[in-house]
Design a protein that fits this description.
Blueprint lengths: L1 H10 L6 H9 L8 E8 L4 E2 L11 E2 L15 E3 L2 E3 L1 E2 L1 E2 L3 E4 L9 E5 L15 E8 L4 E9 L28 E7 L2 E6 L4 E6 L4 E6 L1 E2 L2 E2 L26 E6 L6 E5 L14 E8 L4 E10 L6 E7 L4 E7 L26 E11 L5 E8 L3 E2 L18 E2 L6 E6 L4 E6 L17 E7 L1 H5 L2
Antiparallel strand pairs: 1-30, 2-7, 3-6, 4-5, 8-9, 9-10, 10-11, 12-13, 13-14, 14-15, 16-17, 18-19, 19-20, 20-21, 22-23, 23-24, 24-25, 26-27, 28-29, 29-30
Length: about 450
């Protein structure tokens, strides 16, 4: 009954004129102000021990981050001021927040695949963590770290640690990007398949579900069944790193909505449009419902970072381009050092209303904030250096991947970055980014209808 009720809300949009709906979906939204109310960070160089029964190779990570030849000598390579391979497992890359919090109010945060690709992340163990930002001190407490493992062999392909008892999952197996908790089940959206993964609260996998559209499995070039050559539009219809970047849960717990990060490609291999597909999954039956809608990207945005509901129908979506660093420190002609070659331009949090879907399937965009123009009149910013000429009283969030957003009370939201350790350096030139969490006062955004 709850499922039917939510789907009925989505159907309300059919009463809107198609022309008006399409205009609403693609129009430039009103940008409302955001004020920095809190700022906390975990330093980039932060690590934890792997589980005691993990394979020995997990005690040194990042051995495959320098091309095809492994580098096994710890701390022998420098990148953005950090030496790798690393002792232990990095505490890095927040790639999604669960809508449900722990009883003490702490956040469940997903950690992504490790170092950015299948090829370089086989020694990075997968999992999620429970964290508590303290905006008074500017620190983030890591309360738990849960490691994903598959001793019951639910993963439908050979994994890195296939021959072990616990079968800990690695970044060569999945790329984790979205997390939600329904009852005692953790649901995770990932990009390589793309798949939805179900697990217990202690990380034991209970199911892996391929993405189905119109009765066919959706695949990316990283799907485990594909081999070279594979043809775009035929063998795969989702670009690499284009799977579930956002996984939202309706507040009643009845539906998971998976938002793909990039547009599908057509039979010619070209993007079908400047919009993303959003697909519905019923966690109770563990099946795709067939329902979907489209999200039109802000001009200049190439992907989304996270997706979370704030009430029964309205949700927040992070939109971003592929740049990092403040535009005032952009490289000029002939310049290559001491500048950002591709600075950040489009970093937004957009409010949508899933009760308003037009005849072409587009969700209504309501309002948004600009993460490159956050007001900071009280000097809440805790970072010592941000490269570029930043106006007085302005705070910027100039990261290539901003991947977590959640409501935090009546007038605030929390936003955080994935720092892509050790590769991203958007806050300060040639300095590995930390994991930052910002608390934003955004009453106009949250009240927009």
């Amino acid at each position: 009954m709850i499922l039917k009720t939510h789907m009925a809300r989505l159907a309300v949009a059919a009463t809107f004129a198609a022309t008006l709906g399409t205009v609403a979906a693609n129009a430039d939204n009103v940008v409302v102000p955001a004020t920095l109310a809190g700022h906390a960070a975990i330093p980039a160089f932060s690590f934890s021990a792997p589980p005691a029964d993990a394979p020995q190779e997990a005690w040194v990570s990042g051995k495959y981050t320098n091309g095809a030849t492994p580098v096994r000598a710890p701390q022998s390579l420098e990148r953005n001021g950090l030496m790798r391979p690393f002792f232990g497992q990095p505490l890095q890359g927040f790639s999604g927040y669960a809508h449900r919090r722990a009883d003490d109010g702490s956040l469940y945060a997903l950690i992504d695949n490790g170092f950015g690709s299948k090829a370089n992340s086989s020694d990075a163990l997968l999992g999620f963590t429970r964290i508590a930002p303290d905006f008074e001190s500017g620190t983030i407490a890591v309360l738990d770290r849960v490691w994903l493992h598959d001793p019951d062999q639910h993963v439908p392909f050979r994994i890195t640690h296939e021959a072990t008892d616990q079968r800990y999952l690695t970044g060569a197996d999945f790329d984790l990007e979205g997390i939600q908790i329904v009852g005692d089940t953790v649901w995770i959206g990932e990009e390589f398949g793309p798949y939805l993964i179900a697990a217990t609260m202690d990380g034991r996998v209970t199911g892996v579900y391929p993405t189905m559209i119109d009765g066919e499995e959706l695949r990316s070039p990283d799907h485990p069944s594909l081999r070279i050559p594979a043809t775009a539009g035929t063998d795969w219809k989702l670009p690499r790193s284009g799977g579930y970047e956002g996984l939202a849960l309706t507040p009643d717990g009845s539906l998971l909505w998976g938002m793909l990060e990039k547009p599908l490609v057509d039979e010619t291999g070209e993007p079908e449009g400047d919009f993303l597909r959003v697909l519905a999954f019923d966690p109770s039956s563990r099946a795709w419902t067939g329902a979907s809608f489209k999200f039109a990207l802000t001009p200049g945005a190439v992907a989304i970072g996270d997706f979370n509901f704030i009430d029964d129908t309205r949700a927040l979506v992070i939109e971003r381009d592929g740049g990092q660093g403040h535009p005032s420190a952009a490289c000029t002609d002939g310049q290559s050092d001491g500048c950002f070659d591709r600075p950040a331009e489009v970093k937004r949090v957009t409010l949508i209303d899933t009760a308003d879907i037009d005849d072409d399937g587009f969700v209504r965009r309501v309002a948004q904030i600009d993460l490159m123009d956050i007001q900071d009149p009280n000097g809440v910013d805790r970072m010592p250096v941000t490269s570029g000429d930043i106006p007085e009283g302005v705070f910027v969030f100039p990261f290539v991947t901003i991947e977590s957003v959640i409501r935090d009370g009546d007038e605030h939201i929390l936003v955080s970055n994935d720092n892509n350790l050790p590769f991203s350096a958007g806050r300060a030139l040639n300095v590995a980014d930390s994991n930052e969490i910002i608390r934003l006062h955004v009453p106009e955004l949250l009240s927009a209808e």
